[in-house]
Structure formats: C-alpha cells, structure tokens
Design goal:
The protein has 232 residues and is of the alpha/beta class. The chain has one domain: P-loop containing nucleotide triphosphate hydrolases (Rossmann fold, 3-Layer(aba) Sandwich). Strand 3 and strand 4 form a beta hairpin. Helix 1 crosses helix 9 and helix 7 crosses helix 8. The two termini are 14 Å apart.
Length: 232
C-alpha cells in the first residue's frame, strides 16, 4: 500500500481514554507497515514536565517557557514510536493517572496545543502514518485519508484501564480509575479548543463488544477500501 500514493498516507484514530485506541492503532500500523505516533504521548510529556518541575498545569506562561526550553520529540519506528526529551526516551515515565491528569489539563492551553499540533504535523513527511489521539481527524490532520473514532462506555473503559494499570504495577482502585477517566472525559469533551468529537467523516466503532483483533481488522478493511477508492 505504501507505494500506491505519491503523498504519505495518514490514518487518523480518535477516541476517549481507555477505549483501546493505542493498542489498536499500533497493531494497525504494524499490519499496514506504517509509522505509528500517539499525540497523547506528547501531551503526557508536557504533563510530565509540569509534574517534574512542580508547575501549576494552569500556569500558561511558565509552561510555555518550559516547553520552549525543552526538546520534546517523537522518534518514529516501524509500527511504534517513542517519546524523547533532550534525546532520552521517557516513555515509561509517562504512565500513571497523575501524568495523565496533568496532560489533560495542559492540553486545554492554546500555546501547548499549537506547539504540539505543529510538531505532530511535521511527522507526516517521514512517510505513511497511523496517528491516534483526541483531535487527529478534526484538527491535526483534517485531510487525513482515513478517519476512525473508537468509543465504549465509561464502565468498559475504566475496567480496561484498571486491568492495564494493575499489570503495570499501579495500585489505583477501579473506582479511582473510573473517576479519573470521567473527569478527563468531561475536560476533553467540553474544552473550547479542539474538543473530543468524532470528525464528520470518521468511521465510528464501538469497541465494547469487539476483540482487539476484530477492531484492527475492521480498520484494516476500512483503510484499504478508502485508499483504493481514492486512487480509483
């Protein structure tokens, strides 16, 4: 598929926290042989910086200065990506609800969104790309070749995230995880700048009753159909 278009192909995948879009997007990228990137990882990197330097997530001026003096990059690899700060990979440090909450807060700041969006758009020049996040199909790549929006109920998403965190050794309770996701949903869906909504031309997939393999296969079929139709 990589050689079917003179321009890099972009597949945009959006959805709320805990819906399984990161795993599905990574597997889709591997299946298609595309690069993979998570916009949320960039916001988590900013959230991590805020936590590290004990800066209020509402202090836009201080955060802007912090971002300006910090080299945050996404290193693209076949089917995967890594977040680096000053050349050091920090992917493992970005897990956990504290960083996630800080990331959601800083993502409401225009200066952060503008900086991250510009950096994400530059990744397109590196080749065919699957990118997942919350505003990929609406803001970052509104002209993406294919757009998906994954969704599921709050209870389903909380259970999935709790299981992931338990396996990673985090001690948060199910109710704590559910509350954190509910708060993030509210913040992401109601923010004025780039709210979490499906793009008008996105394929919406409810993942609650599907295995990850089913979701990936649905996206593979949808991607192939849309790209072949576009080339026709």
């Amino acid at each position: 598929m990589a050689g079917e278009s003179s321009e890099p192909i972009v597949v945009a995948i959006d959805g709320p926290s805990g819906v399984g879009k990161s795993v599905a997007a990574e597997r889709l990228a591997r299946t298609l042989g595309f690069h993979f990137a998570q916009s949320g990882a960039m916001y988590r990197a900013v959230g991590w910086l805020v936590e590290l330097h004990d800066v209020s997530p509402r202090d836009g001026n201080r955060i802007a200065a912090l971002v300006a003096e910090t080299a945050i990059d996404i290193a693209l690899r076949p089917g995967q990506s890594a977040v680096c700060v000053h050349g050091r990979e920090i992917s493992e440090e970005l897990a956990g609800e504290a960083v996630g909450k800080a990331a959601s807060a800083v993502a409401t700041l225009p200066v952060v969104r503008q900086t991250v969006t510009a950096q994400l758009r530059r990744l397109r020049c590196q080749g065919n790309l699957v990118m997942e996040g919350r505003d990929i199909g609406t803001v970052v790549f509104p002209d993406a070749d294919v757009k998906f929006f994954l969704d599921a109920s709050l209870d389903v998403r909380a259970w999935r995230r709790w299981q992931e965190m338990r396996q990673a050794g985090h001690g948060d309770t199910l109710e704590e995880v559910r509350q954190a996701i509910a708060e993030r949903d509210e913040q992401d869906r109601t923010r004025t700048l780039a709210p979490l909504v499906p793009a008008a031309d996105a394929h919406v997939i409810d993942t609650a009753d599907f295995s990850i393999d089913d979701v990936v296969q649905t996206m593979v079929s949808g991607t192939q159909h849309n790209i072949l139709r576009g080339n026709g």
